[in-house]
Amino acid sequence: MLTKNQGLCEAPLSRRALVGGATGLAVSALLAACGASATATPPPAPTVTGVPAASSAASAAPAASSAAAPSAAASSAPAASAAPSTAPAAVASPTRPAASAAAAATPATSAAPVQVKDTVKVGLIVSKTGPLQSYAEQYLEGFDIGLDYATKGTGVVNGHRIEPAIKDDAADPATAVAAAKDLIGQGYKILAGSTSSGVALQVAPLAEQNQILFVSGPAATDALQGINGNTFRSGRQSYQDVTTTKSFLPDPKGKTILVFAQDTAFGQSNVAAVKAVFGADGATVDQLLVPQDAKDFAPFAQQVVTKKPDLIFVAWAGTTATAMWGALDSQGVLTSNKVVTGLDQRASYPTFGPAADKIAFLSHYIYQAPQNEVNQVLIDKLKAKGKVPDLFHSDGFVAAQMVVRAVGEADGVAVDKLIKALEGYAFKGPKGDYTIRKEDHALVQPMFQAKLVKQGNDYESQVVATVAPDKVAPPIKK
After folding, report:
1. How far apart are CA 476 and CA 286, in angstroms?
2. For the whole model, what pTM was predicted?
3. What is the pLDDT of residues 19-65, one digit of tens each?
4. Domain 1-478 is of which CATH architecture?
5. Residues 6+ apart with CB under 8 A from 204
């Protein structure tokens, strides 16, 4: 199963902190407003148009996995209400201090000053509060480290200082739309973030209507793929989660696959992905969608037993994951069926309890899997603070790489040039080799099989296999 939430992030020691303390949330479901530099001329505020109707509930970003950490907040985003008249205040914590026009601080490896000709403001709209808080904190910390890596410690690319500003959407689409409109009105040409799928689906249309670049984050919904020419993503999508699951059932023809998920945009996205992946191979796909406010999961576990599927794919997010897994285990589902789910953030590992060794896990990212220089940078930066990378650190890191690439190649913020710079871009990120497909902006990337093993009183993830990018690439969306 795929889940939604992850551990918290802190900013690197060399900069102002991006986020606060860590809170864990369930799996498998991914900065304050900064002014321009002294020499930059602020652009006129564009007209913000076309606000789509908010979805009924915001869904978590992760793959269809489940377990929630004990300290997690509510399991789902609140129902979207009408967009507030004013956007939430930006959190004053840019990753880098404003630079003078003369020069900026340089990395230890370079003696030459970095010339800064202007500032490019990037709005990061993420769930700093609410049920997906831990995902956002990982994303923000990864973005900070990725920005440092991609700019060689300067925060500057081709003379443009990248200056992020965080706004909190609380995993609520209406709040996110208000925040996006506010930033667009201030002249921001690049927005990124979107921990929640429900949020991403509301912000993406605004990007096209107002001609800005939008790089979604951990939000996994397949509906973002090819939604418009202005939208990209820095994480994986549900189809890639589900396709990884095929390795657990090599010959699905004639078999029955049951999707056990919450009745949210995230859960429904996983149902659609399973039908697309397994249905094409001759499998029958059934679904059991559980109300998001359900507390007693025994009746649903009994329904699973009655259905007798050949494989159960669990997509879950939130603090109810522990109770859900307990119900499946107590009803004998985990011992009598093949159960696959997404491996959530590290804080969620203990919530699987005795069920851990009865579950097959697919993983969007576990830090032990990729063996490359970029991943080692992420590991080393976090190790210096006594931490290890978590599920969505890579999404933030890649988002920063994409922003730096776009601004550097475009030599500014001309949106058509930003888009062109990213289309077809192939690069090395924490997970390995990434390619941004030109046709529909799908992010082709590797995925992983994993297992949980008990180490003392704790659980640790271990790599079982790496699934090559081309093996999990979604079909081109026309």
Report:
1. 25
2. 0.76
3. 333 333 333 333 223 333 333 334 444 444 443 333 333 344 444 44
4. 3-Layer(aba) Sandwich (3.40)
5. 214, 216, 224, 227, 228, 230, 231
